[in-house]
Amino acid sequence: MKWDKTKFPPYVYRGTEIVGEEGKSYDLKVEYGGYTVYSKTFLPYGSKIDSVSYTPSIKSDTLKTISVWLNIDKSKKTAFRFFTKKRKDNRFVETAFVFNSSLNLSSANKFNLSPKPNKTDSSFHEGSFFAIGDTVDIKIMAIDSITSLFFTDLSVYSTIAENMISGEVKPLKSNITAPGFGIWYGSAVNYYRCIVK
After folding, report:
1. What is the pLDDT of residues 161-193, one digit of tens each?
2. How many distinct helices (H) and strands (E) make up the chain?
3. CA gyration radius for the chain?
4. Which positions ≥6 away from 177 have C-beta within 8 Å?
5. Which residues does 78 contact at the CB level (< 8 Å), separation at least 6?
6. Model pLDDT for residues 111-132, shown as the tens digit of each residue
């Protein structure tokens, strides 16, 4: 267990010997301080990127949008999270919202990647675009339907908090029994490297 401020929830457990298998379910039992909490998750089947395309930005001749194509099997009820890493920033940045969270997509689908760099990133001036010649690593994480609800709500909550809109915010979904909270999930991860053209 460790504290990782780049994640939410920020407490992350990393196993050195546990490797999940796609298509299987995994149970969790935690006993601490007189409490016992349970959870169960399903490790979905991963999807590889079929192709990548680049679209010029209307803001600059040297910036492009990256789009990826996936062939989605609707029967597998899989949602996806996309991350990109520019070599000059050397860290993965997520495209804000979980894709296929409604689980209604099937066959070939196009997804536009639009990371939001931090002000401290060298590529901050590029915004959600990619510079021609950049080497970019794309990470796609396949997650199950319950996990997609958690991260979809988290994206909405983060947007509301960032824009300082007051009002009632519905609680985030959690697949951990009370009094625990958070998300116990597995993801099938695939990587793709490209050079922006």
Report:
1. 555 554 555 577 889 999 888 889 989 999 999
2. 1, 12
3. 18
4. 37, 38, 39
5. 44, 45, 47, 72, 100, 103, 142, 143, 144
6. 999 988 888 888 898 989 999 9
